[in-house]
What we know:
The protein is an alpha+beta fold and 221 residues long. It is globular and about 45 Å long. The longest helix has 14 residues, at 131-144. The chain has helices spanning 16-27, 47-52, 80-90, 92-96, 131-144, 165-169, 183-196, 212-220, and strands at 2-5, 11-13, 36-44, 59-66, 71-78, 99-102, 114-116, 121-122, 129-130, 154-157.
Amino acid sequence: MTLKVLGSVPLYLISQREVDSYLDEIFRAESRSSSYTELVFQIVKDVAGDRAYALAPDNMLSVGIDFAAGYGGLIWYCDGDLSRQVSAEFGHDIAYYPWVSLNPDPPQHDPRVMSDPSCPTFFNRVSVVPLPVIRAVVEEYFHAGTGFRPAKVQWAKGHYTGELETEVKKRRFRHPGRKPLPDRQVLCGILFVLHTGIQWEYLPEELGFGSGMTCWRRLRD
């Protein structure tokens, strides 16, 4: 199996050495241009097919990291045939809901780690985990090679934005935060991807439709 790193130029990491080298670079302080980074991983079975066609991913591990705070958060979800397999093995809820990392011993102060920079939305304080845990989960995702939900961290039912399910249902009235992109804008992005056949991560943000991942997450909703 191959670990795909989604982005404007996708990376396909096939060997353990390639995964280790990539993660070493990400977590190396001198290589960072910003305190925050967003990473999106996918387990790919057919690299040639993935390169050739704009296939919607059937599994996704999304990571938001704030290096200055020393914490990050995780979102996992699956789709398509994989969701049916996960449902049969682990239950309907795990297969058909997004899941957000859960820290049984969260930091006392909220580090404000972004989960979806396009809104932006932030991981709850109880969802952020130390950076070594983030790396361990990504390594497990590659080693398992199934696209299933990693077991090295606890999970809570959540939303594609990285918010917990309870937060989405009970948004604060007085301070709801910045509003998500309008549905019409995101719909234009979805239609653009479907019409042109480009991969989701190639959607140009300068078009004003949001990022490809934002459009794909909204399509899943």
